[in-house]
Amino acid sequence: MGGIDSTDQMLYVYMDERRTMKHAKKVIFNVFGRMVLNAYVLYKLNTTQGQLKRAAFRKEVIGDLSSEWLASKQIPQNLRGGGDGPSVGFGLRKLPEKKEKLCRTCSGDNHPEGKKRRSRTVCVRCGLGVHAECLGKHVCH
Questions:
Q1: Would you say which domain of life the source belongs to (predicted)?
Q2: What is the pTM of this model?
Q3: Is 39 in the same domain as 96?
């Protein structure tokens, strides 16, 4: 019984369960947390020198998993050019402070219900408001 209690105690130090989270999401995060904890226990047993602290180990595991996922993600053609200003290809620029513009791709007439959707990013080429997920469909005027 002591082993289960100490395992749960170690697990819930880094768990962030909120009331607004759906039950399935809680279960998935719990399973993932247990997998990382089991991996850390195995790491501690098999490594004698230069052991990482538990928080650093979690960061390493999550960083490795996310970098693998991000590398496999396709980047839209518009984003590959990047740039800081209108003369330098395509890309997005964040608006200063909390200013917003209407997204030209998914707002107003382009939205199925005619809703106005605001964005905090603009196209560097034309200066119109565009969400990151809408950039692939955006056409500069």
A1: Eukaryota
A2: 0.43
A3: no
